[in-house]
Amino acid sequence: GRRIKRAISLDMDTVKICNQESLNKFKKMSCMQNLVKEDPALFDVKNEMTNIGMFRRYVDQYLRHHQKIHKEGFTFLVRQLAPTELGIPIELYVFTNDTSWVSYEWIQGDIFDHLLGVLPQFELKAFQTMIEKLR
User: How far is the CA of 116 from the CAs of 7, 10, 15, in angstroms?
Assistant: First the structure.
C-alpha cells in the first residue's frame, strides 16, 4: 500500500451542536447507513453531537467503503488534531491498495475533492487565510 497522511483544516467558527433536522439529514446519507444501524443514538439530538464529529464519522465510513483503500492489515485512522491558528485539522492516515504513483495521486485527489465538496452539507468550511494584496 501507499500511505495517505493529509489533513483538511476546518474553520472553528463553523463548528456547532447539531439540531435534529441536521441529524436527520446525516442519517439519510448513504455513507452513514451502517452507523444508523450500529449506533442509532448518534442521531438523537439529546446526545449533543457536533457537525465536526458527524463529519469525522462520515469520512471514516466513506473511506471504509472506498474500493481503493486498505481496510485490514494497514493503519486506518481518521482523527482530529489539536486546533491551531490555522483551524482544526481532520487528518486521514490510510493506505491505498494501488501503489502506482500516478494512480495514488488520483485516488488521494479524488478523496479530498469529495471531502471538500461534502463540507457544506455538514455546515462546515475549510480554513484558509486571507492575505491582503499590497498595491
Answer: 11, 10, 15
What is the chain's Cα-based Rg? Answer: 16
> What pTM was computed for the model?
0.91
Q: How does pLDDT run across 43-101, given as a tens digit for each residue?
A: 999 999 999 999 999 999 999 999 999 988 999 999 999 999 999 999 999 999 998 99
How many Cα atoms sit within 13 Å of 104 on the Cβ side?
A: 14
What DSSP letter does each residue of 4-67 carry, written as one string? EEEEEEEPGGG--BPPHHHHHHHHTSGGGHHHHHH-GGGG-GGG--BHHHHHHHHHHHHHHT-T
3-class SS of residue 123: coil
